[in-house]
Amino acid sequence: MALISFTLVGLAQNPTIDSLWQAVENATTIAEQVDESNYLAEQYQDIEPREAIEISRTALSLATRINYTEGIFYALNNLGTAYDGIGQGDSAYFFFVKAQELGVELGDEYAMSVVKNNFGLYYLFQGNYPLALKYFQESLVSINEPGYYMDPVVTYNNIGVIHQEQGNLDKAIEYFQKAGDASFESDDKPFAYLCYGYIAQLKEDHSSALSFYNEALNIYREAHDDMHTGESLYYMGECYLGMQDYDRAKAVLDTSLQIYHRLGMVPDEVEIYRALASVYEAEGNNDEALKLYHQAAELGLESEMNTLLVPIFKALARQYALKQDYRAAYDYQLRYQELNDNIYDNTTKERIAQLEHSYELEFNKAERDRLQAEKDKRDAVVRQRTVVAAGSTVVTILLAVLLVVYYRANRQKKVINKVLETKVKQRTAELELVNNKLLVSNSELEHVNNKLLESNEELERFTYIASHDLKEPLRNITSFINLIQRKVGEKADEELEEYMDYVIRNTRQMYTLIDDVLNFSRIAALEVRGTKYIELNVLMIDVEATLSRTIAEKNAELEVDTLPVIQAHNTHVFMLLKNLIENGLKYNESPQPRVKISYREEGDFYRFSVEDNGIGIDPVYHEQIFEMFKRMNTRDKYDGTGIGLATCKKIVTKYGGEIGIRSEEGKGSTFYFTWPKPQPQEELI
Predict the structure, then answer these.
(1) How many Å apart are CA 132 and CA 162, to the nearest integer?
(2) DSSP class of 605
(3) Element containing residue 567 per DSSP (H, E)
(4) 4, 347, 436, 611 — which has fewest CB within 10 A?
(5) How buried is 422 (Cβ within 10 angstroms: 0-12 exposed, 13-18 middle, 19+ buried)?
(6) Residues whose CB falls within 8 Å of the CB of residue 328, separated by 6 or more in sequence, listed in order
């Protein structure tokens, strides 16, 4: 378990909870009550995440009532952070998306840095390290913007986690050191001790690590900070395990587990169960180790955090092999290998190296720009002093002239004002009558508008929550079918195997359908504003990484021309290109499928083409394929939900473009779409 950090506050900034509750109660306005509640919820993230959820919901309700955008943003962000902390990834993602939309609207760099860090955490736990690193780096860029300040400890720390998980210990230690130094400078000494202890632990200097952890533990206990107390105990347990002091390891890990169980922080419980299992395995008590690994796996599957499951599946495969239960060992080895390949493949490492290099270049450029700006400022001060000295005489003369003019104008103004006063009184009476009528109409319109906003929010919330509630039983069905298959084993007859395969295939299809409908609804809800400039060739690296397994399995070739910069939401363009490329690979029976992406300029638009050598589509169906749930092939031949191309059309038309197809059956397809050329802007994202 690495030092993954959730919140953006340290111990030195945490006042007592009682005083914060008092501040909420003493608030004189609703906006002030919202601000104090949001701050209180931040502190509860480390103490009682479920209480943080309740406080944040209250703040969200109050802020929505008075249309307080900033208060709504921080309430949504707190909800996402709290749900992430207890392992409910779907709910966390929903609230982060809503917070991001408001952050763009606010134009607040601090707010965007907060939400980008949290998106980074979400993708970190999902095992998508390139996206996680990208968001963490963007968070650091926002932190370094002039006029804003935020403690970078959390972001430095989490970037270190990514490099550690990828096996780059030198780079990981570099970022953990930055996190520790920044913590010490901001007077958050206990977290600095945790960072320094973790660095010593990575270097296998367990004695020094324990010394640092004890320093942190004493401070956290004195401050009644349960979350960080549990964290300190966990790292001490890992150290004792490394020193083969198994009794002490079990004692501190048991105490840590009790704390996290009471707090309801599922991801941390998973890691402690895994650590305890490792202790029992090292002692040779494999029965107890197997039991604890299974408890860790069950909680890990519940939390939907892929990175936690990799070492657990590997350990379960090892344990079952020791018991000579080779069928179960093989099953867990496959699950480990599949998950491990998704997270730790070479493409991921290359992408992380590219992102790290790009960030260092950008950071160095920003530092040079800052120094140049300081020099320009000093030069401007010198020039200003020269101009002031030369112009002081002129100003004195002008003041004398202006005084004479002012005296004459003021005398004339008094005469005119008397005439205007009479006319103003008459006009005011007329306007009051009109205003009274408008107030009634505005009140009615505001009431209707509020009702519509409430309905839209309820519909969006229903879509997200319904999708989560639908996914859960599907996961349970799949798990039970897998369990039945393992239990029946070779005793199953052919008919039963066919039935079970049918159930698994259809639950997988339903799960994909829910995801596609959810993506479609997100696009429909998000307004085209707050867009940024996107370098498409950089984005294509992410698209290709996502589709790398499909490309490898089908021996496919992806050819990408030099593409332009466009203006959009990154998520929209990623989804559009991924769907079109995936379509060309899926409906393709060629020995070597080929997909080519190119573009040309057409006036104020770019015209993009995605060409494949697949099975092609009869011209009769060219209009129908962009409708929802329209499929030209049966599911027994090609998987799919019939929503992908409808989603593409929704994205393109939302940005003012058009989409179409040129194709004949058996001769491949070329999907084309137009996109407006961007407005000039200095910064490219």
Answers:
(1) 8
(2) E
(3) strand 565-568
(4) 436
(5) exposed
(6) 316, 320, 486
- Global pTM reads 0.47
CA distances from 227 to 234, 398, 573 (A): 11, 68, 39
Of the listed ranges 35-44, 150-159, 308-317, 321-330, the one predicted with least confidence: 150-159
- Domain range annotation of the chain: 265-277+287-344, 527-676
The bridge status of strand 557-560 relative to strand 594-602 is parallel
Tokens representing 18 are 């009682």
Q: Check residue 531 and report its DSSP letter.
A: -
- 3-class SS of residue 294: helix
**What is the maximum alpha-carbon separation in the chain?**
110
Percent of the chain's residues with pLDDT above 90: 19
C-alpha torsion 467→473→474→475, nearest 10: 100
Taking the C-alpha atoms of residue 278 and residue 315, their distance in angstroms, rounded to an integer, is 9
What is the gyration radius of the CA atoms in the chain, in angstroms? 30
Yes or no: say if 509 and 641 are a contact pair by the CB < 8 Å rule: yes
Q: Which DSSP state fits 612?
A: E
pLDDT in tens, 639-675: 556 677 888 998 899 889 999 999 888 889 999 999 9
Neighbours of 557 (CB within 10 A): 13
Report d(CA 126, CA 132) in Å as an integer: 9
Rounded CA-CA distance 171/351 in Å is: 15
Q: Are 593 and 585 in contact (CB under 8 A)?
A: yes
**Token digits of residue 411:** 């005398």
Residue type, 485: Q
- CATH numeric code, 527-676: 3.30.565.10
The structure tokens 């020099």 sit at 375
Residue length, the chain? 685
Mind spelling out the 3-state secondary structure of 127-170?
CCHHHHHHHHHHHHHHHCCCCCCCCCHHHHHHHHHHHHHCCCHH
What is residue 665's three-state secondary structure? Answer: coil
Q: Put residue 530 in one of left, alpha, beta given phi > 0 → left and psi -120 to 50 → alpha.
A: left
Token readout for 420 is 């205007």
**pLDDT at residue 566 tops 70:** yes
Cβ neighbours of residue 396 closer than 8 Å, sequence gap 6 or more:
none
Closest by CA to 100, choosing from 108, 327, 203, is 108
Burial letters 494-526, b for 16+ CB under 10 A, else e: eeeeeebeeeeeebeebbebbebbbbbbbbeeb
**Which pLDDT score, from 0 to 100, does residue 683 have?**
40
Which amino acid is it at 563?
L
- From the centroid of its chain, how far is CA 369? 29
Kindly report the backbone phi and psi dihedral angles of residue 87, in degrees, each rounded to the nearest multiple of 5, phi listed first: 85, 15
Give the integer Cα–Cα distance in Å for 510 and 502.
Answer: 12
| Alpha-carbon span 240 to 210, nearest angstrom | 9
Cα gap 619→293, rounded to integer Å? 56
User: For residues 661 and 625, is the Cβ–Cβ distance under 8 A?
Assistant: yes
Return phi, psi of residue 26, to 5°.
Answer: -90, 0
The CA dihedral of 303, 308, 314, 317, to the nearest 10 degrees, is: -20
Q: Are the C-beta atoms of residues 154 and 46 closer than 8 Å to each other?
A: no
CA 13 to chain centre: 25
Q: Which helix (H) or strand (E) holds 559?
A: strand 557-560
Task: Give the chain's end-to-end CA distance (angstroms, integer).
Answer: 32
